[in-house]
Design brief:
The protein is an alpha+beta fold. The protein has one domain: 2-Layer Sandwich (Double Stranded RNA Binding Domain). Helices cover 44% and strands 29% of the residues. The protein has a four-stranded mixed β-sheet with strand order 1-2-3-4, covered by helices on one side. The termini are far apart.
Length: 104
């Protein structure tokens, strides 16, 4: 899994990059077939976090979050990403289960 972090209109500190790498490495526990994660951080009047996750045979999963504090935006977007990946995994498992049941 490749993680790419991009900062728009400001420089990313090593502390922010380390925080993102640490948090997003845990996503493989929830969905092991993640190909890439692109994290785009932007600062204007608020912080904006956009996460794009590449999954095989799926359109990319895109999560966005806005807020006043950078770390809280990152953590909220991570929570939303975990929820989305969990739902996707349940949906795929349910589809597999249905296809197996049709065979019998």
């Amino acid at each position: 899994m490749q993680i790419t972090i991009t900062g728009r209109s400001f420089n990313l500190s090593d502390k922010i990059k380390a925080h993102i790498y640490e948090k997003f490495q845990k996503l493989q526990k929830f969905f092991h077939r993640i190909e890439y994660i692109d994290v785009i951080l932007e600062e204007s009047h608020q912080f904006h976090v956009e996460i794009k996750i590449g999954i095989p045979r799926q359109s990319p999963l895109i999560i966005t979050e806005n807020g006043d504090k950078m770390y809280s935006c990152i953590d909220k977007s991570l929570d939303r990403t975990v929820n989305s990946l969990s739902r996707l995994k349940e949906k795929q498992q349910d589809q597999r289960h249905r296809s197996i049941m049709r065979e019998y």
